[in-house]
Design a protein that fits this description.
This protein has 289 residues and is an all-alpha fold. The chain has 11 helices and 2 strands, in the order H-H-H-H-E-H-H-H-H-E-H-H-H. The C terminus is likely disordered.
């Protein structure tokens, strides 16, 4: 009796425990998202923001664990999007609604608009960018948008807010516009960096390393003063960068091959370069011959 040869590493079955590990982080994200909604309904706004931030940490870990253990799957991607719709769509919107907006009027419509944009953004991400290596996101990531709303109340309880001119702004009106703006950015084509480059090989690596270090110290020592301004800076920087690079026609290529090919065809037509014919398909060699 002949023993079949062992499967190559990339084809060996992944243990069930390893497969469930990233999904466990995803479900923990769901737990924190629901707990944030319950806390906001009880008037515990600081705790609600904390649970959404914890959900963001779990969301960052589930993808990294899936890649590290090679246990990523289509099921995990879909589950992650469904959970993100609650943790970074509905939960932060309800937190702002209970803590800031006028519950006696029609401000609940902003909760619907923001949540709808978050769901649309996640659906588009699954179609265009999920499962692919990426250096940027098309549209504001829903965790960034949700984290911005979730940490506003933290920031409003600090001296930097109520002892400065910032606290004199009509925040009940500002938050309506902020929710609408974040929703629009999630479904827009504005490009946001996926992660900063770390190292010392170039000035971009040095800047990225500085950002990581500054973020670490900000989160460690001044979390309430740091999160909301840093999130707003990230949002405005991505918007300004996209506008400038778009005017210079230097935007990075999209993650999908179809969009990349379309951009190349438009550039050839604009520059008067003829489009090359598609390559001829070559039939695979018959292994029996």
């Amino acid at each position: 009796m002949t023993v079949p040869p062992p499967l190559p590493p990339e084809r060996r079955p992944v243990p069930r425990v390893v497969v469930m590990l990233p999904n466990g982080f995803t479900l923990a994200n769901l737990f924190f998202g629901i707990f944030a909604i319950v806390s906001a309904a009880r008037g515990e706004y600081v705790e609600a923001g904390r649970w959404i931030v914890f959900g963001g940490i779990c969301d960052a870990l589930d993808g990294r664990v899936a890649r590290a253990t090679r246990s990523g799957s289509r099921f995990g991607e879909e589950l992650d999007s469904l959970v993100d719709a609650i943790s970074f769509g509905l939960a932060p919107a309800l937190l702002v609604y209970f803590a800031v907006l006028n519950r006696a009027g029609w401000d609940w419509v902003f909760v619907f608009l923001y949540s709808a944009c978050a769901v649309l953004r996640l659906a588009r991400f699954n179609v265009e960018q999920a499962g692919r290596k990426k250096t940027h996101f098309t549209g504001l990531p829903s965790p960034a948008a949700g984290g911005t709303l979730a940490t506003y109340y933290w920031f409003s309880q600090t001296p930097l807010y109520y002892e400065t001119i910032i606290g004199d702004l009509p925040w009940q009106v500002v938050m309506r516009w902020l929710m609408a703006g974040l929703g629009f950015l999630m479904i827009s084509n504005v490009q946001y960096a996926a992660a900063p480059l770390v190292g010392f090989r170039s000035w971009r690596h040095v800047v990225g390393t500085g950002m990581v270090v500054a973020t670490f110290f900000g989160v460690l020592f001044l979390p309430k003063e740091f999160f909301f301004p840093a999130a707003m800076l990230y949002i405005l920087w991505g918007l300004a960068r996209t506008v400038v690079l778009g005017l210079l026609d230097r935007l990075p290529d999209d993650a999908t091959g179809e969009a990349l090919d379309e951009r190349r065809r438009r550039r050839r037509r604009r520059d008067g370069i003829p489009t090359p014919p598609p390559p001829r398909s070559i039939a695979p060699e018959d292994p029996a011959r």
